Amino acid sequence: xAQVAARAGVSRTTIYEMFGSRDALLAELGxxxxxxxxxxxxxxxxxLLAEGGLAALSVEEAAARxxxxxxxxxxxxxxxxxxxxxxxxxxxxxxxxxxxLDGARDRPxxxxxxxxxxxxxxxxxxxxxxVRVMLLEALHTETAGTETRGTxxxxxxxxxxxxSAQMDAGRLRPMNPALAIKAxxxxxxxxxxxxxxxxxxxFFSDTSVGAAxxxxxxGALRAMQPD
Length: 227
Fold this sequence. Notes:
Elements: H1 2-8, H2 12-19, H3 22-28, H4 38-52, H5 59-66, H6 70-76, H7 80-91, H8 94-102, H9 109-121, H10 125-136, H11 146-168, H12 177-198, H13 209-223
Helix pairs in contact: 1-2, 4-5, 4-7, 4-10, 5-6, 7-11, 8-11, 9-12, 9-13, 11-12, 12-13
């Protein structure tokens, strides 16, 4: 329902007032509950994770929200970890970023770091909420099994490989590459997380997201220049 509201440019409350439930909306479209797909299940899981964190997510709850039978949901995703992995891949363009970084070894940080930072900045509020939960909650519990952790580690390893290559080439200050990731992208991540709240007040109200990311990246790159 949230995705329908977003696509229609109206509030979720308005959609519920018009149709009352997901089933009613599907009926209006000439569909039924059994037409729900893996995409619907992942979308429902994203909503649950963004709204209530890891504790709110389960295959059963995602199935109920997607209008799918539990047995069907478990055939698609046999456990919470499998669903978490697909949510992470859907909410964040990991495959695209890994492929980009793999082909960017010879490109300077002044080109690559802004690209990655603006990829973060292009995420919508729900995507940011999901990634925040994954980083701060899901990836540090037993719930995140080998599939989810492996997906996350693959992205981190791609960043480490790129940054290490740039340090070896003398383009970045030598330091622990994992710390370098935090130095280069931590300010952007913090800005994106606090921005929805702070912009409701006076902070950042006169600075666009793109301009803010450019300034933060420029500062991080200056700090990471070799001595």
